[in-house]
Specification:
Blueprint: E1 2-7, E2 10-14, E3 21-27, E4 30-34, H1 40-52, E5 57-61, H2 72-75, E6 81-84, H3 85-93, H4 97-108, E7 123-125, E8 129-133, E9 136-142, E10 151-155, E11 160-164, H5 181-197, E12 200-203, E13 209-210, H6 211-229, H7 245-257
Parallel strand pairs: 4-5, 5-6, 6-7, 11-12
Antiparallel strand pairs: 1-2, 2-3, 3-4, 8-9, 9-10, 10-11, 12-13
The chain binds zinc ion (ZN).
The site of zinc ion has 6 residues, from loops.
Length: 258
């Protein structure tokens, strides 16, 4: 697990699995944690790592309902998880799905986990909307297309945008069940002015990006969607996002359109 301060009031922790990010944002002495790392030892260390930098989250947020972003309560079992209304609906419609997906990933990676994941009482949040943090407000923006649900979280006073599974420098666009190219495109269009106004963009997987790097990825991702929509069997995949999962994701995307 790596921790990087992208601002005195924003710290990004990156999991060793899938480079999944968790971002803590602070206003005064209040903090929120968005998304989560994966491995049990990362989750166990998280309160200490954040605490050493003076971040003590009083609430958790998840950008969307995929299990890898929902593990915050394994680090902070007493905190509630705030999610977009769409995410709350999705999670209620498929009870136990996140837990099953977590168990499957754990089994695949031989990971032992002492505690089962309990999501507790989810706090559904209206998106678009605003959420008070100290004397400031986080902006919640719809971000669907990767899945049926999703929100991007902007801390306008810091210029930090946490966008969920978009604009990744390590993963190509992924259209999962429930997602769609049209919704993905709408999200990219919605994100563009937010990215243009931001100092730092934190994707769900990968590295915190500066504005220009994020805008370049946004353009590449649009081109990838164009190629996917044309039904190209092997669309030119955005360069440098080089993991072997790229072809797998690409094949899944084509199937999803099928
Ligand atoms: Zn993800």
């Amino acid at each position: 697990m790596r921790a990087v301060s992208v601002d005195p009031d924003a710290i990004v922790v990156t999991s060793l699995l899938w480079r999944t990010t968790a971002t803590a944002i602070r206003a005064g002495d209040e903090a929120m944690l968005i998304d989560s790392p994966y491995f049990p030892d990362e989750l166990e260390l998280l309160p200490t790592v954040l605490g050493q930098s003076g971040f003590e989250p009083s609430a958790l947020l998840a950008t969307h309902g995929d299990f890898d972003h929902l593990l915050g309560r394994l680090a902070f079992p007493e905190l509630a998880v705030g999610v977009a209304q769409e995410t709350a609906m999705r999670l209620r419609a498929e009870p136990g799905a996140a837990q099953r997906a977590l168990r499957a990933a754990d089994a695949e990676h031989y990971v032992d986990r002492l505690r089962p994941l309990s999501l507790g009482e989810l706090q559904p949040l209206p998106v678009p909307g605003r959420l008070g943090l100290g004397e400031h407000e986080l902006e919640l923006h719809p971000a669907e297309g990767h899945t049926a649900d999703g929100m991007g979280v902007l801390a306008p006073w810091l210029g930090v945008l946490v966008c969920g599974d978009y604009l990744s420098d390590v993963e190509i666009p992924m259209i999962s069940p429930g997602g769609s190219i049209a919704a993905y495109r709408a999200t990219l269009a919605r994100l563009e002015p937010l990215v243009a106004s931001a100092q730092t963009v934190v994707p769900g997987h990968g590295s915190p990006l500066d504005r220009d790097a994020a805008l370049a990825l946004l353009e590449q991702d649009g081109e990838y969607l164009d190629a996917l929509e044309r039904g190209e069997e092997r669309p030119a995949l955005p360069v440098e996002r080089g993991s072997s999962r790229k072809r797998v994701i690409d094949a899944e995307n084509l199937k999803e359109l099928g």
